[in-house]
Amino acid sequence: MTVAPPTFLAAVGEGEGLLLVEDNRADARLFELLLEDGWPDAPPVHVCTRLADARARMLERRPLCVLVDLSLPDARRLDAVHVIRAADPTVPIVVLSGQDDAALGIEAMGAGAQDYLLKGRLDGALVARSIRYAVERKRAENALRESHDLAARAFDDAAVGMALITLEGAFLRVNGALCRLLGYDEAELLTSTPSALTHADDLDGGILFLHRLLDGGLDAYELEKRFRHADGHVVSVQIHVALMRDALDRPLHIIAQFQDVTAQRRAEGYRLAQHAATRALAEAGSLAEAHTDVLGALCRSL
């Protein structure tokens, strides 16, 4: 049975052909024949008989997919999978084995392979389908990892403080901006909690909001709290709090953004003090004027 060439490869420069790592020449030739039958327009196959040669080739040019035998002269069992992943973790791997061992197949998948095929049960359609699915699965995995990496970089490089907090209230992950804001290094914060660093007068602030957040009554909330800096001074912080949920919509972690508003509060305090002083002077002036008027009236009455 012939499988139509997978259209997902038609316009994608994801790799230069297929890399088959197989030390048995007869098995390698059989694989090529099966591939020709199941996928007439398949990318070219390059065969390496040793894992070291395959690794060297991968470092020169990225293959679309690596198909590797687990019985190589320079590798034992899953060593081949580990070496290939180390050479390029973005390349899909299909494991070939002459052993009908389900446990080995599970181990191979756990080690990073996308599929596991038994040599004695191969046909052209199966080989073509396995390669196609391996490429698609790896592509999705790579995209997900890139998305996670991008989110992690955005978290770590944010100009404002960021933290992942457990549902029990402990720091799970913090970024550099939060460390600088509070004056603690990452290790110190990860062994502490936001509550432990909160000013005593602000400990009760936000508890009701947090309960509503966890109960689903709120999607997010904001509040202002004061924290004790590592050197002892007080930092005023505007906090935006939201809830992260898992695939089943269950609460997973709390994500919080910390914005330093100490300078604004200090400026507001200065303005209020100025206003109070100005008002006091004005009131004092009015009293002095009234006192002068009274004295004048008394003098005129004498």
Cα Rg = 34 Å
Strand content: 15-25%
The CATH architecture term of the largest domain is 3-Layer(aba) Sandwich
What distance separates the N and C termini?
128 Å
CATH homologous superfamily classification of the largest domain: Response regulator
The helix-strand sequence is: EHEHEEEHEHEHEEHHHHEEEH
Number of domains: 2
Count of extended strands: 12
Pfam family, one: PAS_3
Domain PAC: 221-273
Domain Response regulatory: 17-134
Organism: uncultured Thermoleophilia bacterium
What does this structure look like?
This protein is α/β, with parallel strands linked by helices and 302 residues long. It has 2 domains: 7-154, Rossmann fold, CATH 3.40.50; 158-260, 2-Layer Sandwich (Beta-Lactamase). 47% of the residues lie in helices and 22% in strands. The protein has a 5-stranded parallel beta sheet with strand order 2-1-3-6-7, with helices on both faces. It has a 5-stranded antiparallel beta sheet with strand order 9-8-12-11-10, sandwiched between helices. A two-stranded antiparallel ribbon has the order 4-5. Helix 1 (25-38) links the parallel strand 1 (18-21) and strand 2 (45-48). Helix 1 packs across helix 5 (124-157) and helix 2 (51-60) runs parallel beside helix 3. It starts with 17 loop residues before the first strand and ends with a helix. Keywords: Phosphoprotein.
